[in-house]
């Protein structure tokens, strides 16, 4: 089994050069390794906890999606989606909330920091603390364990959240008596560059010392680079390369040989002005082609939307069957008697006894297939295909890649965003819900075969 690597990106700010070198570049690099299944998502529900400006949240989702795609994320390879497109995350969040001790949340750093600040100000300890902030780690745990991520690369400030995710997952496993969730491991990338900002402190929006990644184009990049603080040594005087932020920045975007040459030039007396121009040229050489892709993407938000929708579909194909198992585990069961197969129990595969597909030909000669439950109940009927191969291909893909969604008086099966099959009309909402659960269960069962 491949290693599942998952990380979330909170959609508040506009990405800068430090985000690129510290998070985006290493994550994309990791996603191209053999044996890795990468899950990257825009944590837009988490953004709502920190930000109540709708325009900023909306803008940041777009910019971040465009940035990751322009930086080389391959959506065919990586499951790339928005948290808010996966209702199973919020559903799982509730199941986890119900097993999470309040005392555990009381210990969360972010919450405690707010309480401490309030104490210092002499106001109520919970002043300005929302339940979103308080429960932040539970939502994050749901993000992670829903996909059974093995490894979660994050910054140091997130280590405690990962510990809490493990703790919560373990409690659920223990309480409901099975290994429903993999316990995720935190990955702190020691190698990854933490870039200094214009003033030499860590590059961060809160210090207002950032170098923009794409926004503002080449001229904004140049003017930021020209504002990097240096010492007052004149051209001709040897510089302390090792101690200069300029060199640290250069090194993060150059090979060891190129960095050594730059360093020798600084130590040989290159002026700061020339050094800044050299740094700018190097950055621009790397960023210009990416910026071109970024601008092209930003000009076509509907294309980004499509990519994210396709990503959500991939993610939900995994999340929906997982939720069925979890609902069953906690007792939210189908009252009609037909129970989803428990994750631990291997599905019965007696000949002809499980859920199955049957293919048939219509009177007009076109090809269709049906999904039947073990007891023969019709759960889906496909559209008419002129080409039997296409019908066969859709049928094959449906269990793993299909997405069932409620539709008028029933539900429909989607593949790659298009409807390929529909349900019989239900008598009422409860009837539809029952059928839909049985259809999901049937597809989940077939997906395991
Ligand atoms: N809390 C993370 C941050 O601020 C973002 C995040 C949300 C996340 N859900 C996640 C990171 C799941 C890793 C896994 O950086």
From TrEMBL:
Name of the protein this chain belongs to: Tryptophan--tRNA ligase
Recorded name of the encoding gene: trpS
Signal peptide from the UniProt entry: none
Function recorded in the entry: Catalyzes the attachment of tryptophan to tRNA(Trp).
Domain DUF1508: 362-392
Enzymatic class: ligase
Matching InterPro entries: aa-tRNA-synth_Ic, DUF1508, Rossmann-like_a/b/a_fold, Trp-tRNA-ligase, Trp-tRNA-ligase_bac-type, Trp-tRNA_synthetase, YegP-like_sf
Keyword Kinase assigned: no
Source organism of the structure: Bordetella genomosp. 13
GO biological process: tryptophanyl-tRNA aminoacylation
Sequence motif: 'HIGH' region, positions: 11-19
